[in-house]
Amino acid sequence: MIESHDSVWQNCLSTIKENVPDSSFNTWFKPIKPIKYDSNTLTIQVPNRFFYDYIEAHFINILKKTIYQVLGPKGQLSYKIVVDNTQATKAKESFSSKDIKNPFVIPGLKKVKFDSNLIEKYTFENYVEGDCNKLGRSAGISVSQKPGKTAFNPLVIFGDVGLGKTHLAHAIGNAIIKENGDQNVVYLTTETFTSQIVTAIRKGSIEELINFYHMIDTLIIDDIQFLSGREKTQDIFFNIFNQLQQSNKQIILTSDRAPKDLVGVNDRLISRFKWGLTADLKSPDFETRLAIMQEKIGPDAERIPSNVMDYICFNIKKNIRELEGVIISLLAQANLNNRNIDIDLAKEVIQKFVTQDNKGISVENIAKLVAEHFQVPVETLSSKTRKRDIVIARQLSMYLAKNYTEDSLKSIGANFGGKDHSTVIYSINTVRDLIDTDTIFKDLVSELEKKVEMSLIN
Ligand code: ADP
Ligand code: MG
C-alpha cells in the first residue's frame, strides 16, 4: 500500500504528541505541513528558518525516534522552508548551506516566505468608518497601498481596549497581501515576539532571529505596552526596528496608550515610535456603534427590533467587544429561553454585563484567593519575607491584579507591602516568563485564573 504524506505525518504526530508537552506540540508541530512522501523520505514544510532551528535543537531525538518508528530504519525526514523563486539572492545571503549543520536535507532555499499569522476575517471592508477612527483607518489604507513608502512609518495605533486596534492592524496586513502576495507580512503579539526572543537568547541564536526579522517587509506588533520592563526584548526590538526602517520596511504597532505614556519602555524606543504617525482610536459615537453592530451581527441583526438595538447601543459606549458580547448573549437568551427580543430582555442582559463590570474583583480579594491556594496567611503577601513560595504567591497576585483589576501598578504595589511600580513590573514579567517556560507553573496560573473568574460570576 502506498501511504500518503498526510497519513504518514499523522502517525508521526501521534507519537510526537505523546512525547512533548502540549504547549510545545501546539507551537512547534501543529504548524508543520507534510508535503511529500517518497522513497522512505517524508518532506515537511516549516514556516521559517528559526522554526527549523528550534525544532532541530529541541526535538531532534524525538523526531529521529518517531521517524524510525513510523518509517522504519530507512526512513528519512527532509525539511522545506517555504520557498518562493522571486527573491533568490535575498535568501541566499541569509541561509548559506554551510551553516546548516544537521543530517537532513534542506532543499533549495530561495525566498523564504513566512506565515503571516493574519486573521483573514479582519478587513477594511468590514471595518466601519466613523469619526472615532477616521485618521487611523485612512492612514492604514495609505500604508496598505504603499507599505514602507509613506511618512506613516511606524504607524502606531493606540486606543482603549475593545476599540478596534487589532482589527485595524490585521486589515492593513491583509490588504497588503491582497495587493501583492510576494510581500512578507508578519503579525505578532508582543507576547509571542518576547517569547521568541527569550528562546533565542537561551539558545544563543539571536543573530539568526534578527536575520529572520530582516527578511520581513511589513512587521506588525500588537499591544506593545507589554514591552514594559522587558529591557532585553526592547534592545533587540530597537535593533530590528532600525534595520527595518533603514531599508524602508513598514512597521505597524498597536498600544493601549500613547507612546509618551508607555511606562517602563526605553526613551530611545519611544522616540522612534514618534517618528511616524500616531493615530488614536476613540470611542465610537452612537451612530457608528449602530453601524458597527449591523456589520458585525449581519442578517441576525434583523431579528432585533430597532428600539432594542438603539437601547443597547445607547447604553454600551466604551467597548465594541463588549457591545458585541451583549448582542450575542441577547440572541442566545432569546433562542435558549424562547424569549421575545425586547427592551426588558436587553436590560437583563446588559445588567449582567454591567454588574459584573462594576463588581469586578479587588486586589485584596485576589490576594486572598492566592493566599488560600498557597495555604499561607494573606498578611505574609504584604510582609517582607523572601521565602520562595511567598515570593511566588506575591508575584502571582500582582500578575493577576494587573490582569483583572483597573488598578495602577503603583496601587497594586501598595497592596503588597508598598512595592514600587518597577517591582510590580518585574514581578509580572517573572510570572510571564515562567508561564512561557514551565508548563506546571502555567497550569497553576490557569487554575488561579479560573478561581478569579468564578468569583466574578458568583
Ligand atoms: P482592541 O484590539 O482595540 O482591543 P479589537 O480590534 O479586538 O480591539 O476589536 C474588538 C471587536 O470590535 C472586534 O470584534 C472588532 O472586529 C470590532 N470592531 C472594532 N472596531 C470596529 C469597526 N470600526 N468596525 C467593525 N468592527 C469593529
Ligand atoms: Mg487587541
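^ adenosine-5'-diphosphate complex. Confidence is low (pLDDT under 50) at residues 83-111. The chain is about 55% helix and 10% strand.
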